[in-house]
Design goal:
Layout: H1 17-39, H2 59-66, H3 71-89, H4 94-97, H5 99-109, H6 113-123, H7 129-150, H8 170-202, E1 208-209, E2 216-217, H9 219-249, E3 254-265, H10 274-287, E4 296-299, H11 312-325, E5 328-336, E6 343-351, E7 354-361, H12 375-378, H13 381-384, E8 401-402, E9 408-413, H14 420-428, E10 433-438, H15 448-463, E11 467-471, E12 476-479, E13 485-490, E14 496-506, H16 510-514, H17 517-539
Parallel strand pairs: 3-4, 4-5, 9-10, 10-11
Antiparallel strand pairs: 1-2, 3-14, 5-6, 6-7, 8-9, 11-12, 12-13
Helix pairs in contact: 1-2, 1-3, 2-3, 2-8, 3-5, 3-6, 6-7, 7-8, 7-9, 7-17, 8-9, 8-15
């Protein structure tokens, strides 16, 4: 067989440098569209906070992938859309990691390639009711798998989960108490899929006009539109029903007393002697809290730059502050330990007599910010950005602390507030209040501070426990047990304190009790899909080898050697 000719004897086109460049040029507009479509959902997150956009933001991306000529092209659309989404949600990392941000985004964007293929598989071509109904289940499940995989700490953690864009929407917060942020993500993708299916169902050919009578036959196409729209409409109704049911059925947090907590935010302090000047500013602000009948004072991440065992003078100064304000002080030590090798970030509780012994060492570190994954291979990132010059050490276990008033609190550090399982575990261990100590001073003028603070509302709604987000430079905020905002947050430019009277709650939310059941359900759906696709491929007829000649046609429609129909009897 001539490799330069196809099975019909026609010469195959040669792929030259010029033709390859032409293909890339032709594909460029589609690639730009895919990146832009993938970036669109980022506008639903803070700071823009166009939360309503999340319910239709995926539609352009879905419509683009369903129009792909091949499954491979749809997978590329998924990859490029994922790249656009990751860059848009994490664009504030560019000043720190530079080009490495794009490299990471391109790698993580590959997670959406199978999702793009699934879009074309179930919504490509003529939209049928059966395929649409399947898409309403499969596409949200595929999206959850992407979010689950990229939530692994080594891949950057669960920053920018689609459901967390609804942090200020009360019905969505109620849904989070039932199925966590995962359930809200799945329902948002379901709505987007239904809207995209409705658009595709109405994109039918215009009515056919009879040449003989000039009449326009509209009955068939109109009926087809209605039939194709039924599953998508049913999907939207189902999402509304689930949301309404959660609103009516999900238990509300049960009031159980109050707790007065003060947040100390020193603001941006740079330059020589920054650690000493920051500590002095925190001490001055804390003294102003005397006489406010506080239960706890919280400082931000890296608020103390010295190991308190090595600097007993600093420990005594903080203990004196505790006596003065009449409450324990939760500080965050970012320093080399004297009892263990390496640098740790630790939440340390200091009482009137000094450190109480309650200490939590941060377990999940920020990739490149606090350690470099596979440093032997990726250590060059430190030369092109602000990646960690030395890896921080990890803690071994979560800790629930008893503050002076007898209440239990569960501390988290920095982006650990993005992990649903960590706050859920602390709640199961008895924490009545969740605390996140953070610092976003590197990203002051970006979307990062507001994005980070909003995660506390999501974690509070999931667990039914109020949460305090205390930072060095803002945004510092407090959210109640239902995810509602408590008091007034401290903005990024503030150097001040704020006291919050926080309602506590009892009871356990369905999410704390049942865990990540939407993710498990998605795994079952995809497992069934893989099994069905495997059976379908086995039942498909085997392809005839290219070297085997085609059998001679027979019957009244056979063709002669000259290519004309053979006439019987001749």
């Amino acid at each position: 067989m001539d490799p330069l000719r196809d099975d019909r004897g026609r010469r195959r086109p040669r792929l030259t440098a010029a033709s390859a460049a032409g293909l890339l040029t032709a594909a460029r507009p589609r690639a730009v569209l895919a990146v832009a479509a993938g970036a669109l959902p980022a506008l639903a997150f803070p700071a823009p906070s166009l939360w309503w956009l999340a319910h239709v933001a995926l539609v352009p991306w879905i419509l683009l992938a369903r129009s792909a000529e091949t499954g491979r092209r749809a997978a590329i659309d998924g990859w490029l859309g994922g790249l656009g989404f990751m860059v848009a949600v994490h664009h504030w990392l560019l000043p720190s990691l530079h080009v490495f941000t794009l490299v990471i985004a391109a790698l993580l964007g590959l997670l959406w390639a199978p999702w793009g293929w699934l879009v074309r598989r179930f919504l490509g071509g003529v939209v049928t009711p059966g395929r649409t109904a399947a898409a309403l289940v499969v596409l949200p499940s595929g999206w959850l798998m992407v979010e689950l995989v990229r939530s692994w700490e080594g891949l950057g953690g669960p920053w920018g989960l689609l459901g967390s864009s609804q942090w200020q929407v009360e019905p969505a917060l109620r849904l989070m108490s039932v199925g966590g942020v995962w359930l809200v993500s799945a329902l948002i993708v379901t709505v987007n899929t239904a809207v995209a299916a409705l658009v595709a169902a109405h994109a039918v050919r215009p009515p056919v006009t009879s040449r003989a009578s000039g009449a326009s036959h509209t009955h068939g196409p109109s009926r087809a539109r209605v039939t194709r729209a039924v599953p998508a409409t049913a999907g939207l109704v189902a999402v509304a029903a689930v949301t309404t049911s959660a609103w009516a059925w999900a238990p509300r947090p049960e009031p159980a007393g109050r707790m007065r907590v003060a947040v100390v935010q020193p603001g941006v302090i740079d330059g020589v002697g920054g650690a000493d000047r920051r500590l002095a500013r925190e001490e001055a602000l804390t003294r102003g809290l005397a006489g406010q009948d506080l239960d706890l004072v919280v400082w931000g991440e890296s608020s103390v730059g010295y190991d308190l065992a090595e600097r007993p003078d600093v420990a005594r100064r903080i203990a004196a502050l505790s006596r003065q304000v009449g409450a324990d002080i939760l500080v965050n030590v970012d320093a080399r330990r004297s009892d263990r090798p390496g640098i740790f970030k630790s939440s340390v509780l200091v009482g009137p007599e000094g450190p109480t012994g309650d200490r939590y060492d941060k377990m999940r570190l920020v990739p490149f910010g606090e350690y470099v994954p596979a440093r032997s291979l990726l250590g060059w990132a430190t030369s092109v950005g602000k990646a960690a010059g030395e890896d921080r050490r990890r803690g071994e276990r979560p800790v629930v602390m008893d503050v002076g008033s007898g209440l239990k609190v569960g501390p988290l550090v920095c982006f650990e507030s993005a992990f649903p399982d960590m706050s859920r575990h602390l709640t199961r261990e008895g924490a009545r209040l969740l605390l996140a100590q953070s610092s976003t001073s590197t990203f002051q003028s970006s979307w990062a501070p507001e994005q980070h603070a909003s995660l506390a509302a999501v974690r509070a709604a999931e667990t039914g426990r109020p949460m305090v987000h205390a930072t060095l430079t803002g945004v510092s905020a407090v959210y109640g047990a239902g995810g509602e905002r408590v008091g007034t947050p401290l903005g990024t430019s503030a150097s001040a304190t704020s006291t919050y009277d926080i309602p506590l709650s009892d009871g356990v939310t369905p999410y704390v009790r049942l865990g990540d059941w939407p993710v498990r359900g998605a795994l079952v759906v995809l497992a069934v899909l893989c099994a069905a696709e495997g059976v379908r491929s086995l039942r498909r007829p085997a392809k005839r080898p290219l070297s085997q000649p085609a059998p001679e046609p027979h019957g009244p429609h056979a063709r002669t050697a000259h290519g004309s129909p053979a006439h019987p009897g001749r």
